[in-house]
Amino acid sequence: MKINFITIPSLIFIFIVSIFFYLLLIDRDPSEIPSVLIDKKIPEFKTNYLSKNEIFISPENFSNRITLVNFFATWCKPCRDEHKYIKELSKKMEIEIIGINYKDDAKKTIKWLNELGNPYSDVIVDKNGKIGIEWGVYGIPETFIVDSNKKIQFRHVGPINKKILKNINLKINEIKKND
Amino acid sequence: MVAFLGNTALLLASCLAAAQLFISLKIDKYKIIKYHKFVVLGLLLFTLISFFSLMYSHIVSDFSIKNVFENSHTTKPLFYKISGVWGNHEGSMLLWILVLSIFNYFIYKLYNKNNLIFVSKILQNQAIICLGFLLFTYLTSNPFDKTVAKFSNGLGFNPILQDPALAIHPPLLYLGYVGFSAAFSISLAALQLQDNEKINWNIYMKPFVLYAWSFLTIGIALGSIWAYYELGWGGWWFWDPVENASFMPWLLGTALIHSLITLEKRKSLESWVLLLAILTFLLSVIGTFLVRSGILTSVHTFALDPSRGIYILSFTALLGIYSLALFGLKEKNYNKNNFFSLTSKEGTILLNNIIMIILCASVFLGTIYPLAVEVFFKNKISVGEPYYNSIVLPIMIPAIIVMGIAPIMYWKKDNIFKILKKSIYPIILTFFITITFFYIYEKYSLAGIIGIILASWIISNTLIYLFAKIFLKINTNYSIGMTIAHLGIGLLILGATGSSVWQEEKIIRMNINDEIKINKYNVTFSKIKEISGQNYIAIQGNFLVQSDGKFITNLKPENRLYPITQIFTSEVSIHTNLSRDLYLVLGEGNSDDGWVVRLYHNPLVIWIWLGSITIFIGGLLSVTKNKKTIKNY
Fold it and tell me: How far apart are CA B235 and CA B299, in angstroms?
């Protein structure tokens, strides 16, 4: 069959529709944003602890264990929603969780953590959002997994839910195996 | 009870749409009007019943209906309870169907003794579209689904959707999209006609296209106004996938209007118009699909149910393959007389068409490119403003230059020197307008100069045409509607250029009594207080604006908290006049450290909205004129 000018619209149309079908049928999350920081060393920064009178220095103060870095704030409703999953993750003995309190008020945060429970090994403050910029944070909550070599291995934008929790657990196991 | 009524009406409407299709296929042509009258009116009646049942349920807050429970709340003001009907996926589909059946009725009204076969074929195609959307709504997005438990109040709503512009934005946009469905059906009907049944189908299509295009324009403009007032980002157009989804049919619609004129006057471009009409509606449906399936992320957070995506995509595929195949098979019947001179009116219209197609293709590419990359390279990228600004805007320039002179050119063949001679007055006027603007705003950049010259060019030309036509009573070959619409485009370009090229932005942290200067205005943060509204509490800042010691206004931006959903929003405060907007957003903060304040000086923004309204009026004037053509035919 001769392909003429007239059949071109149909071909383009079929091609585009196939792409759409494919994207609908595969299991995908359009809000997932890969980080350019993946496989890179964690950013360097200095800041205060929320309730300790010491200075936190990155990367020095990161331990040699797998670490979850979670950006949160008391003014952020989804952060409250994901809190129970963070608590669940904190039951894992092999990992540490560092909470970065983003553009928030210290008193409110302490009250918030007292009310909901504190799953974090350490809470450090990012008063003006500078650390957030270093990590390329889009909006909170946002969660990163850092391996024992202090390299970022995973990033999730938005609140953790059941499905994401499963992904995070899988990722942690995978990193453990590679270590 | 009301839910049952609405649901049954929806089901009956689906049956009637199927009947409408069947009647067109089977019934003898002399009885067809009688049968069609029955089903078309029935379809309209049942969709009205269904739509108003849902509206009633929203007004009385009947939380036994899932749609009301999820999207409404007793504390919502009545106006937003009503607009809440189409502020969600299911309800908006019902509105879409209502608009479809209204257009279906107008198509039925075209029947006369000379066009029986043609109109019955249009109704047949329209029935397929109605049926597709009715079944989609009934099966996958039924607004009358019940909740399992009893609830005393709803899940509230999205407060940023509580905005008058947004409340009427969907209905107007749908009048646009659905109007293009009529053009689509007319195009298919023309292709389905036998050789001996040929008819001047283009005069039937033109009012629908003009109508659709005008409403699409005003619908897009209202969406833009909402983004400008409610999102608080200082801008009014963000090249978001949803905006693109409405902009692409607008571009093709623009091409369609112009080529229809050529077809009417010169009997050429016939097959091209048929294809354009098909593509315009297909793009509208693909746009709906992109928005509703959640395949792209955007400011519109509609439902993310994959089964809906599959259904609507399958339906789009069906419509697309059917219409494009029909076009491929029958197009040669209409493919003749396609040669003409470039220096003639039809030559410039052809140029307009080519540019609109390139623009639309560029926007389309930018919108779906990230998806294609994801499929083929497993990589995520995003295409944003820099792409559109550097690709789309330069392509528009030749189209706008031609737009100035095309209306006064002659059909068939014109002389380039005569055209230049006729352009002397507009060129002089353009020169003066441009100089005036740069004298006032004193800011020079390439983009600014180009934008202002182009805007002045269109404005001067159209003003001179209008003057010649209205005051000098010169008999011309252009219409008032067209000229007014073109004037609107000129004003829109003026506003768009001014607000983007000359925008000034200041973001600082301010305490009470701090002062900041933007452009020639001194803005003083005078006080901050707590206030409460009907369903929110807020802190409200008070900013005193002065210029050379003279009082201009008090800007009162708010940070609101809606306790029902724990959502924070910021209400922008804007002072508008003909030359600029002062736009102030109150950010986070406290009394010790001060508040983050974003202040914009946006020149000429109001001309974007005035321009859009002018285009709308121009379009409607042309509809009235073209409706008469059908009656006299």
Answer: 14
CA atoms within 13 A on the CB side of B452: 27
Residue B169 domain flag: no
Residues of chain B contacting residue A17, judged by C-beta atoms under 8 Å apart: 313, 316-317, 320
Q: Which chain A residue has its CA at the smallest distance from B324's CA?
A: A10
Of A19, A24, A105, the CB nearest to B372: A19
Q: Is A29 in CB contact (< 8 Å) with chain B?
A: no
Most A CBs within 10 Å, among B274, B285, B295, to test the A interface? B295
Most confident of B285-294, B296-305, B358-367: B358-367
Q: Which of B309, B371, B566 sits opposite A77 (nearest CB)?
A: B566
Q: Are residues B444 and B514 in the same domain?
A: no
The last residue of a domain, from among B127, B162, B197: B162
Out of 3.40.50.10800, 3.40.630.30, 3.40.30.10, 3.10.25.10, the CATH code matching A32-178 is 3.40.30.10
Nearest C-alpha neighbor of B567 from the set B538, B542, B599, B591:
B538
Lowest pLDDT segment from A68-77, B373-382, B483-492, B602-611: B373-382
**What residues in B contact A77, CB-CB < 8 Å?**
566-567
Same domain, B194 and B321: yes
Contact between B17 and B131 under an 8 Å Cβ cutoff? The reply is yes
d(CA B50, CA A29): 35
Residue B303, pLDDT > 50, answer no
CB-based contact, A3 to chain B, within 8 Å: no
B39-61 mean pLDDT: 96
**According to the model, what pLDDT value does residue B99 have?**
95
Residues A127 and B593: their CA atoms lie apart, in Å, by 11
pLDDT above 80 for B294 = no
- Indicate whether B473 and B595 sit together in one domain: no
Cα B7 from chain centroid (whole Å): 30
Q: How many beta carbons lie within 10 A of that of residue B389, not counting itself?
A: 13
Model confidence, pTM:
0.83
Q: Contacts of residue A13 in chain B, CB cutoff 8 Å?
A: 282, 320-321, 324
**Residue B484 pLDDT greater than 70, yes or no:** yes
Report cis status (omega within 30 of 0) of the bond before A141: yes
- Domain extent for B196: 175-412
A13 lies within 8 A of chain B by CB: yes
What mean pLDDT comes out for the span B463-475? 83
**Residues B338 and B406 placed together within one structural domain of the fold:** yes
Nearest by CB to residue B313, choosing from A10, A13, A24, is: A24
Q: What percentage of chain B carries pLDDT values higher than 70?
A: 96
Residue-range domain boundaries for chain A: 32-178
Report cis status (omega within 30 of 0) of the bond before B171. no
**pLDDT 10s digits, A154-166:** 888 878 888 788 8
Closest partner residue to A31 (CB to CB) among B297, B316, B588 is: B297
A23 in reach of chain B (CB within 8 A): yes
Q: How far is CA B214 from the centre of its chain?
A: 8
> How many domains is chain B partitioned into structurally?
4
Compare all CA atoms of chain A with the CA of B327 and give the residue at the minimum distance: A6
Cα–Cα distance measured from residue A10 to residue A31, given in angstroms and rounded to the nearest whole number: 31
Q: Is B578 exposed, middle or buried (0-12, 13-18, 19+ CB in 10 A)?
A: exposed
C-beta atoms of B282 and A17 within 8 A: no
B427 plus B389 within the same structural domain: no
SS3 assignment, position A17:
helix
Judged by DSSP in three states, B315 sits in helix
Burial of B583 (0-12, 13-18, 19+ CB in 10 A): buried
